[in-house]
Amino acid sequence: MSKQKFYLGIFVLFSLFALSFSQKEFESTPLSPRIASYDISVKLDADEKTLEGKEILYWKNISPDTITELQFHLYLNAFKNTQSTFMKEGGRNMPTMNKEENIWGWIEIENMLDEEGNDLSKEIKFIQPDDDNKDDQTVVSVPLVKPILPSNEIKLNIDFKAKLPKVIARTGYSKNFFLVAQWFPKIGVYEPAGMRYATKGQWNCHQFHARSEFYADFGIYNVDIT
Fold first, then answer.
1. What Cα–Cα distance (Å) separates residue 36 from each residue in 48, 98, 102, 114?
2. 49 and 164 in contact (C-beta within 8 Å)?
3. pLDDT-derived band at 97, boundaries 50, 70, 90
């Protein structure tokens, strides 16, 4: 073995050791509370422009409140029809549609089970906390069978299916190109009294607006994509 190869081998080994050490050190001392973490397995059907996913959500209640409901974003429903809040506010036109194309996008929760096996999906309802637009389906409320006490955690198993729209607003498909953004049921942020401008504990889970960004708690994402 030449000296160059020997030194290169030593350098790579030390680099990998340093990376492994720094990663373990970082994982043991997170810089922020890990409130909402996800294990997701999702499959893209490139012909049908659909996603089928299984999601395990771990959500921790770090507030002093007892939580009796959860709220989730279903962002892809902004592209479900012309009457969503996003479409009405933005004055946008969907891309030109060929006869054989379905340009609209949507997402639906097919099942949601807690650790005791209770089917929470039966009680899911669409809510419109910002504008009372009954045609907007970008936020859902999920009543819980068992409330989450302070410092406790809930684990949910969620099955979902989504259809991508034809490309619009940084999302969708065009021929064999796919931009898949904000594509899974995503829990909102619970803000206790005194956080930001909250005078009482409440969910910060806004509808998808034409001029808005995305707000979420920190967590660990383990995602398997097919």
1. 30, 40, 33, 15
2. yes
3. very low
